[in-house]
């Protein structure tokens, strides 16, 4: 294990981005919260409860949809919007 690689919630940034790009949903912690800048588990879950992090209602679980997360983070390169010309 490389000690020079910064870890967020036990994961590296590369692992977080890989999960966001390959899975249909991810957990609030340790993936979505840190990706959105929440530095603690309680802050991430509080943001999800208040609606700052979009979650799906599935019983006790509250997964975060990755299409929304990719859009918020700007990782959705294939679906960029074109600017309208103001002619």
Notes on the protein architecture:
This protein has 87 residues and is mainly alpha-helical. The chain has four helices and four strands; from the N terminus they run ββαβααβα. The chain has helices at residues 13-22, 28-35, 41-50, 66-73; strands at 7-8, 11-12, 25-26, 64-65. A two-stranded antiparallel sheet has the order 1-2. A two-stranded antiparallel sheet has the order 3-4. α1 (13-22) packs across α2 (28-35) and α2 crosses α3 (41-50). The protein is globular. The model has no long low-confidence stretch (mean pLDDT 87).
Mean pLDDT over the residues: 87
Anisotropy-based shape? globular
Strands of the widest sheet, in order across it, are 1-2
Summing up helix and strand content along with how strands pair, one would put the structural category as mainly alpha
Q: How many strands?
A: 4
What is the oligomeric state here?
single chain
| Number of H- or I-type helical stretches | 4
User: Which regions are unreliable across 5 or more consecutive residues at pLDDT < 50?
Assistant: none
Largest sheet: 2 strands, antiparallel
Please provide the ordered H/E string of secondary-structure elements.
EEHEHHEH
Percentage of residues in DSSP E strands: 5-15%
Q: Using only CA atoms, what is the Rg? A: 15 Å
Helix content: 40-55%
- How far apart the termini lie comes to 56 Å
The total tally of domains equals: 1
